[in-house]
Design brief:
six-stranded mixed β-sheet; binds adenosine-5'-triphosphate; 10 strands; 9 helices; four-stranded antiparallel β-sheet; binds magnesium ion; alpha/beta; 23% strand; globular
Length: 289
């Protein structure tokens, strides 16, 4: 049984700050020039960095470059400056933790990095291309295939078995071959050690296993960037440890990994730690391993 797209979108929707922007939905924006870099199809390749370079032509540019990026939420007369002129550069293959207290702007930053939301002002370049100049199809492609998202609340569809949750991004990407989707979903589940739970529903899985299903879903399109917002926030420490082990191996494989957390133990496992406070970067340090 496949759910109608509307229901999938509803259940996969990102809660909170991005409002009605949806994980796989197109952003609400004005007209943009189309960039003619349709790129590789990303199927089955393990060369994640090269694959992303195919999509984004300026291979020598930093992967992620924020210049004076601000985000202001307006609610009636109230203005919340969630991000204030953030400058941040992240290179291909980095493993970065972003840390800060509740309300400091971490999720807002992740939504912008993941093209789920757009800055109020400032420039966001992804692979050297100003995101505001990307066409709708490139943005949808970037979000759906090039970036994997992992959230604190796993956002799994409760009525679907693990493998059907994992295949969803492929469905959104228009992959029509059912057998191929299932194979890719099972490979992704195997990569997080869950082969034996492919037919279990989320309620039949532990919290750590549910998060592993969510990571498999993030990986099924073989993205080169993985963005995780408090991925261990709902987990006990042993489960958190397993999940962090998976992120470490994603980094070792060459993916760019950005983890948002307010837990020091989690943050210091990354190779670089960026601290934000009141929407400002207050510290940015390499962590010696
Ligand atoms: N959609 C929104 N509308 C209005 N204000 C918002 C919205 N989303 C976030 N904010 C405000 O922006 C600021 C930053 O929020 P954000 O969710 O980015 O924080 P956070 O660092 O992720 O916090 P937490 O650790 O609690 O998840 C907060 O003051 C928050 O109240
Ligand atoms: Mg948050």
């Amino acid at each position: 049984m496949e759910l109608p797209v509307v229901e999938q979108e509803h259940l996969l929707g990102v809660p909170g700050p991005v409002g009605k922007d949806r994980l796989f939905a197109r952003p609400q924006r004005g007209n943009h020039e189309s960039v003619t870099n349709s790129g590789a199809n990303g199927q089955g390749s393990t060369q994640v960095t090269k694959e992303f370079a195919d999509l984004i032509p300026s291979a020598n540019a930093p992967l992620i470059e924020l210049q004076k990026v601000s985000k202001t939420y307006r609610m009636g007369t109230l203005e919340v400056k969630a991000l204030q002129e953030i400058d941040l550069t992240i290179e291909h293959g980095e493993y970065v933790a972003i840390m800060g207290q509740s309300g400091s702007g971490k999720s807002t930053l992740m939504h912008i990095l993941g093209c789920l939301d757009i800055p109020t002002s400032g420039i966001y370049r992804l692979g050297g291309i100003d995101v505001s100049k990307m066409g709708e199809s490139e943005l949808a492609e970037v979000r759906n295939r090039r970036i994997g998202f992992v959230f604190q609340q796993f956002h799994l569809l409760p009525r679907l078995p693990a493998w059907k949750n994992v295949e969803l991004p492929l469905l959104y990407a228009g992959e029509r071959d059912h057998a191929h989707r299932r194979q890719r979903a099972e490979e992704a589940l195997a990569s997080v050690g869950l082969s034996e739970r492919a037919t279990h529903r989320p309620t039949e899985l532990s919290g750590g296993q549910q998060q592993r299903v969510a990571i498999a879903r993030a990986l099924v399109t073989n993205p080169s960037i993985v963005l995780a917002d408090e991925p261990t926030g709902n987990l006990a420490s042993t489960q958190a440890d397993e999940i962090m082990g998976i992120f470490e191996s994603l980094h070792t494989e060459g993916r760019t990994v950005v983890i948002i957390t307010h837990e020091p133990d989690i943050a210091t496992r990354a190779h670089r730690l960026v601290r934000i406070k009141d929407g400002l970067v207050i510290d940015d340090e390499a962590l010696v391993k």
